[in-house]
Write a structure and sequence with these properties.
heterodimer, A: 113 residues, 12 strands, B: 117 residues, mainly beta, 4-stranded antiparallel sheet, 0% helix
Chain lengths: 113, 117
Amino acid sequence: AQSVSQHNHHVILSEAASLELGCNYSYGGTVNLFWYVQYPGQHLQLLLKYFSGDPLVKGIKGFEAEFIKSKFSFNLRKPSVQWSDTAEYFCAVTPSGYSTLTFGKGTMLLVSP
Amino acid sequence: GAGVSQTPSNKVTEKGKYVELRCDPISGHTALYWYRQSLGQGPEFLIYFQGTGAADDSGLPNDRFFAVRPEGSVSTLKIQRTERGDSAVYLCASSLGGGTAGTDTQYFGPGTRLTVL
């Protein structure tokens, strides 16, 4: 079975700092990869997803993620965070051909103004 | 347009009681998923419907948990003889087609927070 590891449970940044959240998965085959975000008091919503093609994926609100197959990684990045990026971020994976998601434990990001 | 809705938003029950949690997916979405999120954890898959049938129920923890989707729209998650360990947020998600591609975006509802005393 596949699993997802998110290295940082809590991250605190000041506005304008750069962000990188780590995500590693364990699965030997082809995968689909996702980052979801949950803003305070809101539903989980999709930030970005990767299926195939260009390993650098751009999502909403200036976020991007890079799939590095050799490292089984899909790290999330943003060059300059804003206070409104305060949220919990979840990495998720599903083997290609399947649709049920396996999530990491999440990373809580707090951006101080 | 309307998103995924779940009722109730909160449910407090006593150990041993029966509960039902309801999910209304986005209209036209044929795939529906139930996940459970415990404190400090990410969502954990429970069951997936494609239309009216359960395509994958491998995530249900035991036979106290059951879900139905009789008309291919609304789904109900049923928990019998609740235990304190069942306390969690139960999330529902829907997607356009599901199928085997795994590429459809899953849209999540607000969840039902279940507390078993």
